[in-house]
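re: ur question from yesterday

yeah so i grabbed the chain u mentioned. its 134 aa long if i counted rite. heres the sequnce exactly as i have it in my notes:
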Amino acid sequence: IEKEKPDGYLIETMTSLKEAKAATQAVRQVSRRPIFLCMSVGGQDFEPIRKAGADVIGFNCGTGPEEIYKLMKALIQIDSGPWCVRPSAGLPGKILSPKKFAAWGLKFKKLGCQWVGGCCGTTPEHILKLREFL
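ran it thru and got these structure tokens back, copy pasting raw so excuse formatting
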């Protein structure tokens, strides 16, 4: 896993805390590089994942940025960070414009998320606009 020398590892779209912990431990056994772990559901106690070696935690996917924003607001009450988010741009037929998506990115940054990106439904235009806003 380390022969390619990546900057870090992204474990994402995890729905089970047990599996998220196992994935984090597996990467940590072979690397000291940063691990970003994103869950796709809320209501989790992230302490076991932090103890397993995740450096940055947060959320990805979902039905759109509004859902992820609610999850992040809850997370920052129980975890000291750092955090990342990679929300989807919405559901098929209801995809946010790049400008609206980027406006959400700014809200995440103001909330304290150090890394903001995109997941399902995002396009290069969404990411470029997000970069402009941040």
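noticed a couple things. Helices lie at 17-30, 47-52, 65-75, 98-111, 124-133. also Residues 84 and 115 are 5 Å apart (CA to CA).
anyway ttyl
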